[in-house]
Amino acid sequence: MIEVNRKGEVWVFAEQRQGRLNEVSLELLGKGRELADKVSVRLAAVLPGCDVESLAGELAAYGTDKVYLAQDPLLADYQTNSYAKVLCRLIAKHKPQIVLYGATPIGRDLAPRVASAIWAGLTADCTDLRIEDFEIARTKKQHKNLLQQIRPAFGGNIIATIVNYDRWPQMATVREGVMPLPNRNGKLKAEIVNETIEITPEDLPLKVLDRHHAPKKVNLKASRIIVAGGAGVGGRDNFRLIWELAGALGGAPAASRAAVDLGFIDHDHQVGQTGTTVRPALYIAVGISGAIQHCAGMAQSARIVAINNDPNAPIFQVAHYGIVGDLNDVVPRLIKAIKTKS
After folding, report:
1. Does a cis peptide bond (omega within 30 degrees of 0) precede residue 169?
2. What's the predicted TM-score (pTM) here?
3. For residue range 7-63, what is the model confidence (pLDDT) as tens digits?
4. What is the DSSP string of 300-317?
5. For the residues of 53-79, what is the DSSP string, one character each?
6. Which residue, among 300, 296, 294, 295, has the nearest Cα to 280 in the 3D structure?
7. Which of 44, 104, 174, 291 has its CA 20 to 30 A from that of 274?
8. What is the rounded (10 degree) CA torsion for 193, 201, 75, 14?
9. Residues contacting residue 145 through CB under 8 Å, at least 6 positions apart
10. Of 249 and 215, which is predicted with more confidence?
11. Alpha carbon 338 to chain centroid distance?
12. Residues forming beta bridges with residue 124, ordered by sequence position
């Protein structure tokens, strides 16, 4: 267990693959900056890999004060054992008070291993992070400036706030797209700390024989207009209405988990708690009931339009505009109006 260090830094694990940073790491730097300023400490990024020193400048441009750079040829490919060894050694040496990871496949693999090794707490899939005081009800003991880790629980039916006052560092994974991407400032500089962590072949139980990279078919996070369909669309053939409306608006087609599970469209297009979190200028929800798991991924959209034949559908509680009607009637009329500019 790492001792409590209330002056410790706020860290972000800088995830990269083949020399490219995952955008969620840059999103976390924005939130990390806010947390670090709140407790008056420095913000740092931990960057393991091989020949990745050029990425330190990019991390600096997004606000980090310091970059812990751990390079080794054996860190060229992510493996749980080797990367966990780097994180554990650096945490033991520098004693940060908060460590944040993206809730990506790598982050969800690495963070629990590190937490288990150093006997720290970990909250997964957070949707918000705050610094607040906390009082233990039983003992009335006050703890100043703890990390409040907020996430959906019980299938998304409640929002839980989790604190960790005695097992540090406080650690959390955060889903992609939940935190807004901070503005890039190429004039910012960061202190580079080169760290030497001995990695041996015994730390690599797996051997990478080949790589197959399949790029995502759609970038929902970058789309200013999204048209999403739910189970109420009725079928894969009928889902063509979603594609047509998105095309008419110059937007991207998306879906709820129910529509993806039914095979109407593939997972790359899924919005929600187990999909992508988006905040477009316009979000049109067609045949989506509005379960809390879906709303968690789109509620921060600037304008939300809901189309549903059920006037009591929960989606209308978060929508700015609602159309009650049969989507097979409403959507074609919308497409015609848009194309004819009527």
Report:
1. yes
2. 0.83
3. 899 999 999 988 899 999 999 999 999 999 999 999 999 999 999 999 999 999 999
4. T-S-EEEEES-TT-GGGG
5. TTHHHHHHHTT-SEEEEEE-GGGSS--
6. 300
7. 44
8. -70
9. 6, 38, 39, 131, 132, 133
10. 249
11. 34
12. none
Distance CA 278, CA 267 (A): 15
For residue 191, the tally of other CB atoms under 10 A from its CB is 13
CB 33 within 8 A of CB 182: yes
CA angle, 220 then 301 then 342, to 5°: 90
Q: Per-residue DSSP letters for 173-216? A: EE-TTSSPPPPP-TT---EEEEE-----GGG-------------
For the purposes of burial, counting CB atoms within 10 Å of the CB of 306, is it exposed (0-12), middle (13-18) or buried (19 or more)?
A: buried
- Counted residue by residue, the chain has a size of 342
Residue type, 95: K
Query: Domains along the chain?
Result: 10-203 (3.40.50.620), 220-340 (3.40.50.1220)
